[in-house]
Design goal:
Elements: H1 4-11, H2 15-23, H3 30-43, H4 49-56, E1 61-65, H5 74-90, E2 94-98, H6 103-112, E3 118-121, H7 131-136, E4 141-144, E5 154-158, H8 160-173, E6 178-183, H9 186-190, H10 194-210, E7 213-218, H11 223-232, E8 239-242, H12 248-257, E9 267-272, H13 274-278, E10 285-288, H14 291-303, E11 309-313, E12 317-318
Parallel strand pairs: 1-2, 1-3, 3-4, 4-5, 5-11, 6-7, 6-8, 8-9, 9-10
Antiparallel strand pairs: 10-12
Helix pairs in contact: 1-2, 1-3, 5-14, 8-10, 11-12
The protein binds a DNA duplex through helix 2 and helix 4.
Protein name: Transcriptional regulator, LacI family
GO molecular function, one term: DNA-binding transcription factor activity
Keywords: DNA-binding, Transcription, Transcription regulation
DNA sequence: ATACCGATCTTTTGCCTTGA
DNA sequence: TCAAGGCAAAAGATCGGTAT
């Protein structure tokens, strides 16, 4: 493997000059720069990442803590990861994916062993136990999700509260007087996951304001769970809001099996990634969950000299084939 | 056998020298 | 005086060598 010394020898300069050509941190004459760049090409030189981290105290690696829990929809989590990965590469960084739920110890491990330059944390809880550790961390951190006490933290997320309200308001505008929420799995609520709580609060708050009767259900990620939820949904409900990507297809299938027409008998509005809404049996009306966009934004914030604060992305609702005005 | 020292790996960067 | 580029120290872990 060629080292910077090999390149320097081949180009007839010192290693420091090669380093400065690579970093662009000071002016190098055109002739010298071209000679160095040619030597780099000819020798197939790539800087040794370990030595570079040792000398610069920077790793060019971002840690992304994204526990892959059974009650989360992995393809949706991967949209966040994909967005973050692409943006990290654009910043000439790599991503270290930590999928094990290590809690605060994992954050300390990454920070104290200098594994990464910054940490992005997903799956944030409302009373998030990692918050004190994140505040005291000697490296930048960004949360995808918003804990109750976000002071001093940098957070980014879809405005789930506004999303919940938006769903109810649009359905109310279409004349629906009774709606049901097919929400995330019970364990997601029990964990106090922040997006689930905020969506539910927005949903019930808007229902109260608009005089819409609302039932909120928690749906385990399996077909039995879907059946139980639909059994528990009042017959008088004319619309379902599905905030649970994993069961979206099953909800449509079970409604069809029960002979309920969508949207003739019941409207269905989902919160899910756009591509997921567009590739169901029928195109689903949905509030877009912009996972890739949020992942990319988190990377920008982690690598930028951003001040702390909460950035919420405004929800966008697109009506497709599953919502309609109430008959009569 | 144990304890400790210092060289080594590769790269970055502040300071210094050279030459016009 | 300034641009261009070299020198040398420093980073942290590891390993060989020397002293006790």
């Amino acid at each position: 493997m060629a080292t910077i010394a090999d390149v320097a020898r081949a180009a007839g300069v010192s290693p420091s000059t090669v380093s400065y050509v690579l970093s662009g941190k000071r002016t190098i004459s055109e002739g010298t720069r071209l000679r160095v760049e040619r030597s780099i090409r000819e020798l197939g030189y790539h800087p040794n990442a370990g030595a570079r981290a040792l000398a610069s105290s920077r790793t060019s690696v971002l840690a992304l803590v994204a526990p892959l829990r059974k009650d989360l929809n992995v393809p949706v989590v991967m949209q966040f990861v994909g967005g973050a990965l692409e943006r990290a590469r654009a910043h000439r960084h790599d991503l270290l994916l930590l999928t094990e739920d290590e809690g605060a110890d994992g954050l300390r491990r990454v920070a104290s062993s200098a594994l990464a330059d910054a940490i992005i944390v997903m799956d944030v809880e409302a009373s998030e136990p990692r918050v004190p550790v994140l505040r005291a961390l000697p490296l930048p951190s960004v949360l995808i999700g918003v804990p109750d006490d976000a002071s001093g933290l940098t957070c980014v997320d879809l405005d789930f509260g506004a999303a919940g309200a938006l769903c109810v308001e649009r359905l109310a505008d279409l004349g629906h007087r009774e709606v049901a929420l097919i929400g995330p799995a019970p364990s997601v609520y029990e964990r106090g996951t922040s997006y689930a709580k905020r969506f539910l609060a927005g949903f019930t708050g808007a229902a109260r304001v608009r005089g819409v009767r609302a039932t909120a259900l928690r749906c385990p990620p399996n077909y039995d769970g879907v059946r139980e939820c639909l059994d528990a949904t009042p017959d008088s409900a004319t619309a379902l809001v599905v905030h649970n990507e994993a069961v979206l297809g099953a909800v449509l299938a079970e409604l069809a099996r029960r002979g309920r027409q969508v949207p003739g008998d019941v409207s269905v509005l989902a919160v899910c990634p756009r591509d997921m809404a567009e590739t169901q049996v029928v195109p689903i009306s949905s509030v877009d969950l912009p996972g890739a966009e949020l992942g990319a934004l988190a990377v920008d914030l982690a690598l930028g000299a951003s001040r702390s604060g909460v950035r919420l992305v405004e929800p966008v609702l697109t009506e497709r084939a599953t919502t309609a005005r109430v008959r009569g």
